[in-house]
Amino acid sequence: MSGLDKILTKEVISADAKIIGTVGGIAVDSDNWKVPAVQLIVKKGNEEALGLKKKAIGTQKVYIATTQVSSVTDTVTLAVKMDQVKEVLVDNKKVPVTHDDLLKKKVVTTDGKQVGVLDDISFDGGKTWEITQISIKMDKAAKEPLDQKKGSSVTILVKDVKTIGDMVMLRLDMDGLKDYLARKPVSKK
């Protein structure tokens, strides 16, 4: 199980052991709770090999389908060689939602009460790329009614998320969430 903090900034290497760049983020398919692509911040000098134009300022960012990732350990290793990477890039317009779009979104219960903000996304990196849970940084005002005395974050399974729009709505009202947190072992950071 990986969180964003475990994959962001890892070096991305090709199957022929060439450093392509670093992980800058992930794409999120919240309908199926999967990570369909990983964002790659291209290492300066690799733009031409990937069929990209050099930027005068900043770096190029592209997406690679997670099906092209063979492993996630100390590095993110691709299943293709450096000269094949440009063939497996995902069009940025086809990326559903990025982790940046989701982080810091307000999290509310079905009765409209704000619980906190989305703080992290946990997923099975390198295997199924299934997103299994989210972490919510609790608002101080929500801690007392939810009997959360320690820590500032709680973990919720994605099956308990109803929908994502301008906010993240849980399938639970405030009382239901209180019961859920009381009986479920949660990660309290």
Please give a structural write-up.
The protein has 189 residues and is mainly beta. The chain is built from 4 helices and 15 strands. The protein has helices at 4-7, 99-102, 140-143, 174-183, and strands at residues 2-3, 11-13, 19-28, 37-42, 61-65, 69-72, 76-78, 89-90, 97-98, 106-108, 114-123, 131-138, 153-157, 161-164, 168-170. The protein has 2 domains: 2-98, SH3 type barrels (Roll); 103-183, PRC-barrel domain (SH3 type barrels, Roll). The model has no long low-confidence stretch (mean pLDDT 90). 30% of the residues are buried. Strand 6 and strand 7 (76-78) form a beta hairpin. The strands form 2 sheets. Strands 2, 3, 4, 5, 6, 7, 8 and 9 form an 8-stranded mixed β-sheet that branches.
Mean pLDDT: 90
**Secondary structure: helix percent:** 10-25%
How many strands, which pairing sense, and closed or not: the largest β-sheet?
A: 8 strands, mixed
Instruction: Determine Rg (CA atoms, Å).
Output: 19 Å
List the secondary-structure elements in sequence, H or E.
EHEEEEEEEEHEEEHEEEH
Could you list the spans in which at least 5 consecutive residues all have pLDDT below 50? none
Q: Termini distance?
A: 16 Å
What's the CATH topology label of the largest domain? SH3 type barrels
